[in-house]
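Write out this protein's structure.
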Amino acid sequence: MSNQKITMYTDGGARNNPGPAGIGVWIETLNQKYGEYIGEKTNNEAEYEALIFGLKKIKSLVGKVKSKETEVECFLDSELVVKQLNHQYKLKEERIQKYFIDIWNLMLDFARVTFIHIPREKNKIADCLVNEAIDKETKQAYLL
């Protein structure tokens, strides 16, 4: 079984927290970028939703069979989310617990998934995708 390793950078953000929110996903290994507006959310919700979106996207891009042989390295600039996913912090909020369960279930589709905290400066592409998605949506709403 030859393992493929995929590197992914994710980011989520909300303006005014909670507020208009977006996600950014850069699957570096596959050279794929995604940014989406996700409605009114908190920063933490957006961070989790970006990660869920990215893992689902990788599975759809590589296929169900190949994903079982794939390792995914997830780079996030949210220290809180990384520590929650790595079992260093407890999950106190029920809505965050649901995101955690979603991610845990998605992890079963892969050989291995790791979560690594990086400084914000090293996550510029995903961060840019978040802001572009929010800007596009809020400008459209402003024009209406």
